[in-house]
Design a protein that fits this description.
The chain is 15% helix and 35% strand. The strands form 16 sheets. Strands 23, 24, 25, 26 and 27 form a five-stranded antiparallel β-sheet that branches. Strands 28, 29, 30, 31 and 32 form a five-stranded antiparallel β-sheet that branches. Strands 49, 50, 51, 52 and 53 form a five-stranded antiparallel β-sheet that branches. About 4% of the residues have low confidence.
């Protein structure tokens, strides 16, 4: 027995020996193995778990004799609707196999009975087995008996045996049918409940989706899990018996504080959580009792917490607390004298000054808190015509913004905090205000509408773009991420919206609204991935953003291209920049550098195979720039290629060996320099042109006014398409790049976008019919180009899009094709002649996606879109389940019984 997998080969050899003995002499058995229930079936069978199944099948086959064999099968043949799993030793004992839970659930979904190894009996934890659901066998003989057991007693008379077989078969059929119907009903109930929960409790819905997938691992359930794993899911923190009014992270992100009311003691309190592991917060110590606890804020070093009591009995004004050990907060001195507890609080960026309410709600006092145990008032209070409800410092500490109903929002010069100087009114009254880290933009909100203001000149404050309307009639609540690029604000009574504000003049919603609770306060942690919301529903919700959310660009992303080693991702956008990201850990990508100063948007990117050189093409430029990425944090120009005197470069591609670079030039008009040139870049600093330009001459249907290029994996073939200006795709043999030769006839239908499978045999195209929106325009087609002289269309076009298709890419194993447009669709192209859509489209963004690519040797998809955001989406089902389990709480027994009563309660996830 030969196999690439040693365990599989050994298991088959053992099965052959145990089942056949001496009967195998001179025999050859050919097996046909059918795989199912996987979005992308594996290329080979591995491991020993098919040993028992092969042994039983061989026993039946090799014992069969003419005439008698068929009668034996009637009385005692292998039982239909029974599946077996198990490894074998040389003595016929069944050995433990891995993943029995999954096998049991898969068998249950099909309505099959499972025969499994006795050593696995104690491992079945997924759900309690039903009677007859699974049989455990210690030896091959026992497994054989269970797999063939049709009757409970022995009948001596042949006629009675035949009658018993008929009756027994009918009875077993009825039982199997009943179990199948029961299983189908169960699956429908769990699926329906999971769908209902998505609008109210997305975390519990994601857990229910896992249960639905385990019961019935369909393609739709798979894509739902991928969506669940790649959106923020809240963890609920319960520590209050009444409403929660404030929430804040310590500057280092390791502590979360929340202020609210305790009905039991009729007082305010502050609770602290250890956030060392953001997915598993730990409640610290006893409550810190503070009457009212209307406001609170951490000092910049995180060692001090200031609290402000509202207008309640026992109001003690403003207090400072030592929270170096948040499990045991310690009061620092007494309450600040003449401080009113009803006004907001804010520390200066250096932590030396605290702004608080004064003797009345209409005053805001600055305090020297270098020694927090002995605060000293600085100068006279900042007087207002009505109660102060907003105070915030600029990042440089030189300006302070306050707001009151009668005065509106005003800015103060506090360079000398002992002598604040009013600069003037900058806006009408607001309910909240926060500066971006660069200090140039002030986000203000009131009644649910957020404005972004340019405050570089306080005398002439300008609103940037249209307001971000999050929730008309809602409260004044919002939060900015630490880098100032993401804004979170309520979008409805119980929903939140995330906005990309890297370009404050053009904020873009980043995803569909998040189902949460009615929010009274919000705060981002320093990592920019975690934020907390407080609510009147007595809870704090902790949210974890998808870790691979890249927000460096300020305009629509046009390209996402990974380096072949998978360690760097380059993204280009209409903002005329290229960002480089470290994707060595795709779950936590890190920005490396930004390349700017292009004359226009970068329209094409290509990495050399070793990842050390990046080629870029800017719109309208007649050159290609080669960048040295030996130090990706400091990209340097390596060389510039002047591709044409009269035409701009529109596309660029490296050959797989890195020795050749292909460039496409275009004038945009028929008859211009619309050609492809090949360059020797074996020495990237000294590129050299090879041969004559490749043109579309001789093919009347082609005009490469906007050419795109793709090399085959072996580097011998270059596919050239004219995007919107050509009705064909041409294949060129570039084995000798000095003398490229046309290879086969043109492929009709053209290609706006195209991709070659890793083996080079399948070409995927997005057709260009010459007339936008005309018949066939935008169709996704698969072509067999294994024989360049006879390219063949494989199957019908892939359909389903209601908008344009913007990009497409093959997975590294070639089994999946991803396409983008109104969401991402995944297609099983294991057999490209029979492609099938996998589940439903992935709702990655509310905006149109414009580019996508797989990271090398992974199931991670990099996408870019009109929302200025790059995302890395893991598509592996195991990784999706792991991420859901990490980012959500285990449901309580009461939650389970309320929402999933049809399933037995368990705490296992994944």
């Amino acid at each position: 027995m030969r196999s690439p997998n040693a365990q599989f080969a050994s298991a088959m050899g053992t099965a052959w020996h145990l089942a056949s003995g001496t009967q195998s002499e001179g025999r050859c058995v050919v097996w046909r193995i059918v795989l199912s229930d996987e979005p992308s079936p594996p290329e080979q069978i591995e491991g020993p778990s098919l040993g028992v199944a092969f042994a039983l099948g061989l026993r039946t086959l090799l014992r069969r004799r003419p005439g008698a064999g068929r009668l034996r099968d009637v009385f005692y043949g292998l039982r239909p609707r029974t599946v077996v799993t198990g490894a074998l030793d040389a003595d016929g004992r069944l050995l433990r196999v891995a993943g029995l839970d999954a096998k049991l659930l898969a068998a249950r979904r099909k309505g099959f009975r499972l025969v499994a190894p006795e050593p696995n009996r104690l491992e079945v934890t997924a759900t309690a087995p039903w009677p007859g659901d699974v049989k455990f066998a210690a030896t091959l003989r026992e497994a054989d008996g269970y797999a063939r057991q049709f009757r409970t007693g022995r009948i001596a008379v042949t006629a009675l045996i035949l009658a018993a077989v008929m009756t027994g078969a009918f009875a077993f059929h009825q039982r199997d049918l009943a179990q199948t119907q029961q299983q189908t009903a169960l699956i429908s109930q769990v699926t329906a409940r999971a769908d209902q929960l998505h609008a109210t409790d997305p975390s519990l819905a994601a857990r229910a989706d896992i249960e639905a997938y385990r019961l019935n691992p369909t393609a739709d359930r798979y894509t739902r899990l991928v969506e669940d794993a790649n959106k923020p899911l809240p963890t609920v923190l319960n520590a209050f018996s009444s409403s929660v009014s404030e929430v804040a992270f310590s500057p280092d992100g390791r502590t979360l504080a929340a202020a609210g009311h305790d009905d039991a003691k009729d007082t305010g309190m502050v609770r602290f959580w250890d956030m060392t592991n953001p997915t598993r917060p730990v409640l610290l110590g006893a409550p810190l009792r503070v009457p009212g606890a209307t406001w609170m804020v951490f000092s910049p070093d995180g060692d001090t917490l200031a609290t402000s009591s509202g207008p309640v009995p026992g109001n003690t004004g403003v207090r400072l607390w030592d929270v170096t050990d948040p499990a045991s907060p310690r009061a620092l001195g007494t309450a600040l004298p003449h401080s009113d507890g009803g006004s907001p609080l804010a520390f200066s960026p250096d932590g030396h000054t605290l702004a608080t309410g004064g003797d009345t709600y209409w005053e805001e006092q600055l305090w020297d808190v270098k020694d927090p145990a002995n605060p000293v008032p600085l100068g006279r209070p900042l007087n207002h015509a009505s109660a102060v409800n907003v105070v915030t410092w600029s990042p440089d500490g030189r300006s302070l913004v306050t707001s009151s109903v009668n005065d509106g929002a005003r800015m103060w010069n506090v360079t000398n905090p002992s002598q604040p100087v009013l600069r003037g009114k900058i806006w009408t009254a607001v309910g909240t205000a926060t500066f971006t880290p660069d200090g140039r933009t002030l986000a203000i909100g009131d009644g649910g509408t957020v404005h972004l203001l340019n405050v570089t000149d306080p005398e002439h404050v300008v609103a940037l773009g249209n307001p971000v309307t999050s929730f008309l009639g809602g409260g004044s609540v919002m939060a900015l991420s630490a880098d100032g690029r993401i804004l979170a604000a309520p979008d409805g009574e119980r929903t939140l919206q995330l906005w990309n504000i890297a370009d404050p003049a053009h904020p873009k919603p980043m995803a569909s609204p998040l189902a949460g609770h009615s929010t009274t306060a919000m705060s981002f942690a320093r990592d920019g991935l975690t934020f907390a919301t407080a609510s009147g529903d007595q809870t704090v919700q902790l949210w974890r953003l998808p870790t691979a959310l890249l927000t460096g660009h300020t305009e629509a992303v046009s390209s996402t291209v990974p380096a072949p080693n998978g360690r760097i991702l380059a993204s280009a956008a209409n903002d005329s920049t290229v960002w480089l990201w470290n994707t060595s850990d795709p779950a936590h990508p890190v920005p490396l550098s930004m390349i700017k100063d292009f004359s226009g948007p970068v329209i094409s990117l290509a990495f050399s195979p070793d990842g050390r050189t990046l080629a870029t093409v800017a719109n309208g430029e007649r050159r290609v720039i080669l960048w040295n990425l030996e130090e990706p944090t400091k990209p340097a120009v390596l060389a510039q290629i002047s591709a044409s005197i009269e035409a701009g470069v529109v596309s660029v591609a490296f050959s797989p060996d890195g020795q050749t670079l292909a460039t496409a030039t275009a004038t945009g008009v028929v008859g211009g320099d619309n050609s492809v040139r090949l360059w020797d870049v074996s020495e990237p600093a000294r590129p050299r042109r090879l041969g004559e330009p490749i043109t579309a001459d001789g093919d009347s249907a082609s005009n490469w006014a906007q050419a795109s290029l793709v090399f085959s994996a072996d580097g011998h073939t270059l596919a050239i398409a004219g995007r919107y200006t050509s009705n064909t795709v041409q294949l060129w043999d570039v084995t000798d790049p000095e003398h490229p030769v046309r290879s086969g006839p043109p492929i009709t239908g053209g290609a706006r976008w195209m991709a070659l499978s890793p083996d080079g045999d399948t070409l995927a195209t997005v057709s260009s019919a010459g007339v936008s929106g005309g018949p066939g325009d935008g169709d996704i087609k698969l072509w067999d180009i294994s024989d360049h002289n006879h390219p063949t269309l494989l199957g019908p076009p892939l359909t389903g899009y209601t908008t344009r298709v913007t990009d497409l890419a093959f997975s590294p194993d070639g089994h999946t094709l991803a396409t983008s447009g109104d969401g991402v669709r995944l297609w099983d192209v294991t057999d490209p002649a029979r492609p099938a859509e996998i589940g439903h489209p992935l709702a990655i963004s509310t905006a149109e996606l414009t580019s996508l690519a797989y990271l090398p040797n992974s199931q991670i998809l990099a996408t870019g879109g009109q929302d200025n955001t790059v995302r890395l989406w893991p598509l592996a089902v195991d990784e999706s389940i792991r991420q859901i389990c990490t980012n959500t709480d285990t449901p309580t027994r009461s939650q389970w019984q309320k929402h999933l009563p049809m399933l037995p309660y368990h705490t296992k996830c994944g």
